[in-house]
From TrEMBL, chain A:
Compartments where located: Membrane
Pfam families: CDC50
Protein name (Swiss-Prot/TrEMBL): ALA-interacting subunit
UniProt keyword annotations, A-Z: Membrane, Transmembrane, Transmembrane helix
Organism expressing this protein natively: Cardamine amara subsp. amara
Family recorded in the similarity comment: Belongs to the CDC50/LEM3 family.
InterPro entries: CDC50/LEM3_fam
Comp. bias intervals (Low complexity): 1-10
TrEMBL record, chain B:
GO terms classed as biological process: protein localization involved in auxin polar transport
PANTHER family the record matches: PHOSPHOLIPID-TRANSPORTING ATPASE 11-RELATED, PROBABLE PHOSPHOLIPID-TRANSPORTING ATPASE
Topology in membrane: Multi-pass membrane protein
SUPFAM superfamilies per UniProt: Calcium ATPase, transduction domain A, Calcium ATPase, transmembrane domain M, HAD-like, Metal cation-transporting ATPase, ATP-binding domain N
GO cellular component: membrane
Molecular function, one GO term: ATP binding
InterPro entries from the UniProt entry: ATPase_P-typ_cyto_dom_N, ATPase_P-typ_P_site, ATPase_P-typ_TM_dom_sf, ATPase_P-typ_transduc_dom_A_sf, HAD-like_sf, HAD_sf, P-type_ATPase_IV, P-type_ATPase_N
The P-type ATPase N-terminal domain, residue ranges: 40-106
Name the record gives this protein: Phospholipid-transporting ATPase
Residue numbers annotated as active site: D429 (4-aspartylphosphate intermediate)
Localization in the cell: Membrane
Catalytic activity: ATP + H2O + phospholipidSide 1 = ADP + phosphate + phospholipidSide 2
Length: 350, 1203
């Protein structure tokens, strides 16, 4: 192999000058683009880059994890499962009959506050094993009808909760029909704790998706009645419980905002909840929980992100060390033929 | 007009025409019957009679579509693809209630993809359309019925029109030749576009027409009727009759001028249009070239089927689970239902628990639609776009542009780009491919003295062969860089002869006769450049041209050929002045492959009759007279030397003819020529044979078939890349072997396994002429020889890996070796050899060998050739490369890629091929990766909706994923990525083996990428779900709904998929930066714009980014975490692989990165350790010679310093 012979075919790459090209010439125009010689960054994973990358990732992730964990730990959360407890002992073998039966289903719950909760304290109900994301369920609504009174007859996607005696239901569909209707009243030391139910829904929903002049019509008039009823005199955009409910949950276990308590709850406080247990989760073995929670900048109490960051940060640091050791101990085997799979099989003559 | 008249010649003596009186043959009785119904009314195209016939016009359409048929036809083409058909079905299903998403999500991407494909089709077709327009608007002179020929567009020609075609114009349709500028109304036609042959053919009109029609005005009252065969594709026959002046004459192909051939050396011809447009023979002949698909694409189809399997399996599982869960909802006693909020007691069939099996079946279809994201809808169109752009790069590569002929490389199909990176065997034609097909007069032997000092390439390489170790690099460079001689066809250097010095030679008289013979004995036609007065020649073969040129350069300038004479200028020996001489040309005894000689009979100025003859040595030596063998011994010696040097030799001899003898000969000869009996040819042969005897030897000529520039170097590189090179040639064995040596395919210490049938036994049988016995014996002989060869190879195995074999087989033996029973054996033998040369092979055999290699080894084959005889081979091979050289366009027209020179193959394969292979395979892997990532997240989410087929993402997100957020980076990868730069592709040719062994598109790699996709999807889904689950996710106490989880997951997918791309590519130009980061940025921009549109359109994505996602820190933290986490495994894998198990291209990246590319020892280490012994090429040759001398390492070091 001679240098000149090699370069005589390669070397032209730089010297291709379009000098003296006739107009009719088919000579391709020279440009770095067409000759695929664009300046380029050609990174390769050198030890320095690999170790550095892992180090940086580790160094960034571990503090992030700590911060997240702190935020999560700073949140005070009280969870009270009441679905079974709120059914009288006598009816517990047939909870469905109880919940579907008539009569008052008042239930008293007592909640101990172990740690001071700064206001606002958010009240949630949590349902489990409830498939709000089921396709039949998600589709069973009509957004146009919710927005504008002119569209009230547009119920085509709402079957089977679309009409009552030929009259369109507003709001139609399974989602609205199955509106959650347990209610909670809170009191501390026999003193009523006001629940603020304003501003629990997304602003965009309230303003743009639920009409100010759309009023419930024929709602829950047909049999059987699903969930909660609506005040026919309040426009949909003011029915924030409905708006929250209608924004369907992603997963079968979900929480929905019920309201806010605008006072601090002190450590040691005993909260009494006067609870109306109306909603049927018994037929599908769903759990019902009442949740009180404060928030941090990160949201609610969820250690997952913090732990995940910490773990992965540590793994990255570990990998950085491992690679450093590997690179030191085991020098590179550049060009070892045994690594070339095709060479092994194709040795010899061919 | 008169001027033209003067030029009229009677050239009929020059060619042994069939008798001018054509006869009615059997075929003519069919006229008027079925298949022979065409009637052409000449000169009255608009008469009622011809209008009734209503023949098609002369408009020719080569486009695939017309404006009307474009939409339906191209749509049909698109939906023939399984994947597209699947998307069509899902698209239609999406209009029904079964659909999990709005129809737009299915139809928009489909529409986009189909539109893109159709636009591409349309643009390609528009290119053809433009060609059509150009072609159809060419002008020709057409008789307007009033004595004037007007210029008219081709497309307006009608059957029956009279046209006048001028010199060097193409014939616009199939014409009946009526008369020409020559008195005997012959004309010369170049049929290069039809059959690729460059020599001129002669056509001649009937006497009846030529005698009546001479000038434009003669056509005024012309009335003639042609009855002939219907349009057909046979180029070599034509049957018809002409009714003209109450006379009925038979017409043959001799009177038919075919469209797309060119009028040469004739001022003008008149013709009547017989076939127009699509009825013409050339268009009837044009068939679509076989469409070839690359190996990668075929494998890709398998992957698609695999994905279909996965989709159906998942749908099936999902449907079963869905069926079971739906069934659970059925009405229990007491009218209660489980999930009452779904109202299962009042459900349509899709969700009806009472009919759960039916619901499950419907769900299956829904799921198939939902999982359609596993199949990359844009894969085909992306690959097509990428390939077209790759072809643009190939076409624009300045290093594959050949200045001399002004020809850049031209990828005629873009289908096979990546196949170029996987070539295992190259099957090459020799003449015109390895060699220039330009003959150079380089030596001669006159009167037993050898003249000519030029060194041929073969001699140069032979010199190297003989003194092995003293290989000097400069020699090789001369081979590469040497510029061609100043005069085409002439490379003769010898002071004893040039510049008139020959007169001083002892044998000046013989020399004079020798050169005179060169100047007279040929069929070339001189063309005088009026401006410079120089003469150039139009000859049937390049050999012949080189003779005339040589004679001219040595002072015997042939300058004019008249109807019965040859004129040339020469130096008068006595006066020392240049004189003009005219030899009367009496007869031309033509060359053919049986006679292997060509003679002319002339009368010189002294009235002496001379027979001048030139021919192959074996036929000429036996024809010498007793007293003509004076120089025989010496000449034979020289001829053998010349043949050894790879030169073509011809023996020149003459004799004086007795007047009486000639008269008799002339009589017999003319009689024989005019006879119509079947044994006419034999008769002529006999007569000429008698004449060409008792010759007096003058000497021999040696003409070099020049190797193209850079061929040895290119072959060496290809050999180093591990590509096997076979030469398939029609030449004789000796020449082929010589060329083999010249381009280093053969070398001294190679063991040659020669298979031929030149054994005495077979020859004896051939003499006896028993056909069956010959066949039997030949077959046995070939098989025996093959067995011996195999044994030889077997014996050497293990002994030394450096021993190499070469197989040389001739055409006759090949016939037997290619028989079904033995072809396996032949292939085994051939693949065991480093070089294979098949000589004397026919075009069909070339194609058969190609097919054998292709199907027998299952590897990619590439055929390269330049002539019409290579067409079969080019079409048969996986890739056909046409050399756009001198032998016409036939090979190019049937090739997949055309290049101008053999040496560009190196760049085409090692650089473009490697890149394209690397790009396309990475691209496909990545495509499936990203779609699996996307699809699995959809699947996982569905599992959490009790398999109710609820998609995780907004409809528009679904539909735009493949189109906007992930398509451009992958196209950029396919177009621009370079694992190593061109320079390193050359420096480490073995890199090419990555493609040959298909390492980058192995199932291991494909499955690896797919599993990476599955992992990515699992990570994205579960991490997002855990981090956002039922918790309040922002400081305002809001919880994450479906749209928030979906939006977050989608953001993660877009980020991860694009970052993965950034990790996978090794070449970042501004393009990559723009498309990768642009795609991510575009996602956010899209989210904002889409979210800002009224909720009736954006539905649950309304303000989702501005209101819900962006203000929440947990969204950003989750995205960051997920994207880093999912990339860690790949990053670790790549780091470890790069450092400890680098692939070959990665090693080269290391070398480049560490700046060792100029450190010879380092490079040598990489090369030596990874290169397997190369067995052909001059590197191998040098290595072998160095091995012999035992200075292996030292020498290698020296060589690599040269890098």
């Amino acid at each position: 192999m001679s240098s000149i012979a090699a370069s005589s075919t390669i070397g032209g790459s730089g010297s291709a000058e379009p000098s003296g090209v006739k107009k009719t010439s088919k000579r391709p125009k020279y440009s770095k683009f067409t000759q695929q010689e664009l300046p380029a960054c050609k990174p390769i994973l050198t030890p320095r880059w690999v170790i550095l990358t892992f180090l940086v990732a580790g160094v960034v992730f571990i503090p992030l994890g700590v911060i997240c964990l702190f935020a999560s730990q700073g949140v005070v959360e009280i969870v009270d499962r009441y679905d079974t407890d709120c059914v009288p002992e006598t009816s517990r073998n047939n909870k469905v009959a109880y919940i579907q039966g008539a009569g008052d289903k008042i239930c008293n719950r007592t909640i101990m506050v172990n740690k001071t909760m700064k206001h606002p304290v958010y009240i949630y109900y949590q349902l489990e094993n409830f498939y709000q994301n089921h396709r039949r369920y998600v589709k069973s609504r009509n957004d146009a009808q919710l927005r504008s009174p002119r569209e009230e007859h547009d119920v085509k996607t709402c079957a089977p909760e679309d009409n009552v005696d030929g009259q369109p239901i507003v709001p139609c569909g399974l989602v609205a029909w199955s509106l959650f209707n347990d209610t909670y009243r809170f009191s501390r030391n026999n003193q009523q704790l006001p629940v603020n139910k304003k501003g629990i829904s997304w602003k965009s929903d309230k303003e743009n998706k639920f009409g100010k002049n759309v009023f419930p019509k024929h709602f829950q008039k047909g049999a059987p009645i699903g969930g909660g009823a609506l005040d026919p005199n309040k426009s949909l955009s003011e029915q924030e419980d409905l708006i929250v409910w209608m924004r369907t949950a992603a997963l079968p276990t979900f929480r929905k905002l019920y309201g806010k308590i605008e006072t601090d709850l002190k450590s040691g406080d005993t909260i009494t909840v006067l609870l109306e247990n109306n909603y049927n989760t018994y037929s599908f073995n769903g759990e019902k929980k009442l949740v009180l929670s404060t928030t941090s900048w990160l949201g609610g109490r969820n250690d997952f992100l913090g732990i995940a960051y910490l773990t992965v940060g540590s793994i990255c640091l570990f990998l950085a060390v491992t690679f450093a050791v590997l690179y030191l101990v085991k020098p590179r085997q550049l060009g070892d033929p045994s690594y070339l799979s095709w060479n092994r099989s194709a040795g010899g003559l061919q | 007009m008169g001027k033209c008249r003067r030029k009229r010649l009677h050239l009929r003596n020059l060619y042994a025409f069939k008798g001018r009186k054509s006869t009615f043959q059997e075929d003519h009785s069919h006229i008027g019957g079925p298949g022979f119904s065409r009637v052409v009314y000449c000169n009255e195209p608009n008469s009622p009679a011809s209008e009734r016939r209503n023949y098609a016009g002369n408009y020719v359409r080569s486009t695939k579509y017309t404006p009307a048929s474009f939409i339906p036809k191209s749509l049909f083409e698109q939906f023939r693809r399984v994947a597209n058909f699947y998307f069509l079905v899902t698209g239609i299903l999406s209009l029904t209630a079964l659909s999990p998403y709005s129809p737009i999500s299915a139809l928009l991407p489909l529409g986009f993809v189909i539109t893109a494909s159709m636009v591409k089709e349309g643009i390609e077709d528009w290119g053809r359309k433009k060609q059509d327009i150009e072609m159809n608007n060419r002008k020709v002179k057409v008789y307007d019925g009033n004595g004037i020929f007007r210029r008219e567009e081709w497309r307006n020609l009608k059957v029956g029109d009279i046209v006048r075609v001028e010199k060097d114009e193409f014939f616009p349709a199939d014409l009946l030749l009526l008369s020409s500028s020559y008195e005997d109304s012959i004309c010369y036609v170049e049929t290069m576009n039809l059959d690729g042959e460059t020599n001129l053919k002669v056509k001649q009109s009937l006497e009846v027409t030529s005698s009546a029609l001479h000038e434009d005005s003669d056509f005024k009252d012309l009335k003639a009727v042609v009855r002939c065969e219907d349009p057909n594709a046979d180029l070599y026959t034509f049957v018809g009759t002409l009714d003209f002046e109450q006379q009925k004459s038979p017409l043959s192909i001799q009177q038919l001028l075919l469209r797309d051939s060119k009028l040469r050396n004739t001022e003008y011809v008149y013709g009547a249009v017989v076939f127009t447009g699509h009825d013409t023979k050339v268009i009837q002949n044009s068939t679509d070239p076989p469409s070839k698909r690359s190996r990668i694409e075929r494998k890709m189809d398998k992957i698609i089927y695999l994905m279909f399997g996965v989709v159906f399996l998942m749908s099936f599982i999902g449907s079963i689970v869905f069926g079971i869960e739906t069934r659970e909802d059925r009405v229990r006693n007491g009218g209660r239902t489980e999930r009452w909020y779904l109202k299962p007691d009042d459900a349509e069939i899709l969700f009806d628990p009472e009919r759960a099996p039916m619901a499950a079946i419907y769900h299956f279809f829904t799921a198939v639609m939902l999982y359609s994201y596993f199949i990359p809808i844009s894969l085909y169109v992306s690959i097509e776009i990428v390939k077209v752009l790759q072809s643009v790069f190939i076409n624009n590569d300045i290093l594959m542009y050949y200045e001399e002929t002004d020809k850049p490389a031209h990828a005629r199909t873009s289908n096979l780009n990546e196949e170029l990176g996987m070539v295992d065997t190259i099957l090459s034609d020799k003449t015109g491919t390895l060699t220039c097909n330009s003959m150079e007069f380089i030596k001669c032997s006159v009167a037993g003295t050898a003249y000519g000092r030029g060194i041929t390439e073969v001699e140069r390489s032979m010199a190297m062969r003989s003194n092995g170790t003293s290989l000097v690099d400069d020699d090789l460079d001369v081979v590469v860089d040497r510029s061609g001689p100043k005069i085409k066809g002439f490379n003769f250097v010898d002071e004893r002869v040039i510049k008139g010095n020959w007169v001083k030679q002892r044998d000046a008289v013989v020399l004079q006769k020798f050169f005179r013979l060169l100047a007279v004995c040929h069929t070339a036609i001189p063309e005088i450049n009026e401006a410079t007065g120089t003469v150039s020649y139009e000859a049937e073969s390049p050999d012949e041209a080189s003779f005339v040129v040589a004679a001219r350069e040595l002072g015997f300038e042939f300058f004019s050929r008249t109807q019965n004479g040859v004129s040339f200028r020469e130096l008068d020996l006595t006066s020392g002045k240049t004189v003009e001489r005219v030899y009367r040309l009496l007869n031309v005894l033509e060359f053919n492959s049986a006679r292997k000689r060509m003679s002319v009979i002339v009368r010189d100025e002294d009235g002496k009759l001379l027979l001048l003859s030139k021919g192959a040595d074996n036929v000429m030596f036996e024809r010498l007279a007793k007293n003509g063998r004076k120089f025989e011994e010496k000449t034979r010696e020289h001829v053998n030397e010349y043949a050894d040097a790879g030169l073509r030799t011809l023996i020149l001899a003459y004799r004086e003819v007795d007047e009486n003898e000639y008269i008799e000969f002339s009589k017999n000869f003319n009689e024989a020529k005019n006879s119509v009996t079947a044994d006419r040819e034999i008769l002529i042969d006999e007569i000429t044979d008698k004449m060409e005897r008792d010759l007096i030897l003058l000497g021999a000529t040696a003409v070099e078939d020049k190797l193209q520039n850079g061929v040895p170097d290119c072959i060496d590189k290809l050999a180093q890349a591990g590509i096997k090179i076979w030469v398939l040639t029609g030449d004789k064995m000796e020449t082929a072997i010589n060329i083999g040596f010249a381009c280093s395919l053969l070398r001294q210490e190679m063991k040659q396994i020669v298979i031929n049938l030149e054994t005495p036994h077979i020859k004896a049988l051939e003499k006896a002429g028993e056909k069956h016995a010959i066949e039997q014996a030949s077959r046995e002989s070939v098989v025996k020889q093959m067995e011996e060869g195999k044994a030889l190879i077997k014996g050497s195995k293990g002994a030394s890996s450096h021993e190499a074999f070469a197989l040389i087989i001739d055409g006759k033996s090949l016939t037997y070796a290619l028989e079904d029973d033995f072809k396996k054996m032949f292939l085994d033998l051939a693949t065991g050899c480093a070089s294979v040369i098949c000589c004397r092979s026919s075009p069909k055999q070339k194609a058969l060998v190609t097919r054998l290699v292709k199907t027998g080894t299952g590897k990619t084959t590439l055929a390269i050739g330049d002539g019409a005889n290579d067409v079969g081979m080019l079409q048969e091979a996986d890739i056909g490369i046409g050399i756009s050289g001198v032998e016409g366009m036939q090979a190019v027209m049937s090739s997949d890629i055309a290049i101008a020179q053999f040496r560009y193959l190196e760049r085409l394969l090692l650089v473009h091929g490697h890149w394209c292979y690397n790009r396309i395979s990475s691209m496909i892997c990545y495509f499936f990766y990203k779609n699996i990532t996307f699809g699995v997240t959809v699947f996982l989410y569905e599992a959490y909706t009790s398999f109710s087929a609820q998609p995780a993402y907004n409809d528009w997100f679904l539909s735009l994923f493949n189109v906007f957020f992930s398509s451009l980076p992958v196209i950029a990868l396919g177009v621009f990525d370079q694992d190593v730069s061109a320079r390193y592709c050359y420096k480490f040719p073995l890199l090419y083996q990555e493609g040959v062994q298909n390492l980058l598109f192995s199932w291991k790699r494909i499955i690896g990428w797919m599993l990476n996709g599955v992992f990515t999807a699992l990570a994205i889904f579960f991490l997002c779900k855990e981090s956002l689950k039922h918790q309040l996710y922002n400081p305002n106490g809001k919880t994450a709904g479906r749209e928030i989880l979906g939006g977050t997951m989608y953001t993660c997918v877009v980020w991860v998929v694009n970052l993965q791309m950034a990790l996978a590519i090794s070449y970042f130009t501004w393009v990559q930066h723009i498309v990768i980061w642009g795609s991510v940025a575009f996602w956010y921009i899209f989210l904002m714009i889409y979210g800002a549109i009224a909720p009736s359109f954006s539905t649950d994505a309304y303000k989702v980014f501005t209101e819900a996602l962006a203000p929440a820190l947990s969204y950003w933290l989750t995205t960051l975490f997920v994207m880093i986490f999912t990339l860690i495994p790949f990053f670790v894998f790549k780091s470890v692989q790069m450092r400890f198990f680098p692939g070959y291209h990665q090693m080269i990246q290391w070398i480049r990165y560490e700046g060792h590319s100029n450190d010879p020892e380092f490079v040598e280490m990489v090369r030596q350790r990874s290169i397997r012994p190369t067995t052909v090429g001059f590197t191998a040759r040098r290595a072998a010679s160095v091995r012999r001398s035992g200075r292996f390492h030292e020498q290698l070091k020296k060589n690599f310093i040269a890098f």
